[in-house]
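Collaboration report, partner site 2.

Our partner group contributed sequences for two proteins of shared interest, and the home lab folded both. The records are reproduced in the order in which they were received, starting with the first partner submission.
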Amino acid sequence: MDQALHMHMVPAADVAALRAFYIDALGWKTLGPDMPGSVMLRAGTAVIVFLPRDYLAKESGIDVSATARAINAVFVESKADVDSQIARALAAGAALTSPVRDRDGGLYSGYFTDPEGNGWEIVWSPVMRPGADGGLTLALP
């Protein structure tokens, strides 16, 4: 199996609410034409797609109601970027789950959840930054 992640499929109870949060409130852009019943977003070098929970369960054969949610991380260029992106998410209706602060490993970050409880961390790292292709780069001292 290739060591790659191209798409992160997320079961959703209310795709319309997630569309309003990510596109209308946060200003993210959809990938491709709008598809009724799903939202597909480019996230760096991968794609996040929110799909109706029942559809994803039927297609995958996996009981997505019992599946633990992942916490997604967005790495940014500065601590100020962490502050502004967390503030924008909160203004859009996100729920703060861990306040912005200095963390272990020299990280500076905060955590929130979207309207359906999907977790996000906005993080600045002294050694991991977004690269030109949108993927993470590692610059060890």
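Second partner submission, folded after the first:
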Amino acid sequence: MAKIHTLHDLIDMKKTAANVEELLSDYRHRNALTKRNLFALRSPQLDGMPHSSNPHGLEDRIARVMDKDTDANGLDSAAYVKQCDEVLAAMVNEDHRAILKLLYFIPQPITNEMIMDRLNMGSSSYYRHRRIALVEFAELWPPAPLELLVYRSEKGK
């Protein structure tokens, strides 16, 4: 009898998990950038001193900030943070969502051991669930502009 392969069987879990770890490792920094931009773009203030007038000055400053804020994948920090938050919220398994939230989304990171204690998991169970959580995140992540899933190549074909 021939073995039936599902798409999930073809996912390279190790490489997919590594892609998600790399993507999420930037979350805290990008989240802080979204807050910084709120303070960087301010209305002009009158100080009584004569200045040369540039009618597009504010737009130019906004464009410069946004250009610096876009990563190689084409997502600016606000879009990146929004997309990460939405994908995390869409995850079905509460333990998986909690693992990723505690690892990457809270302001102060905590150790794997602290997460194991909070979720009452042993070491092998925790690391298995962590990898599955990372793959679940990749499955929910939209494929454009960046595909996180890595599929195994079939040998001989």
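Feedback sent to the partner group on the second submission included the following. The CA atoms of residues 34 and 78 lie 6 Å apart. The chain has a mean pLDDT of 81.
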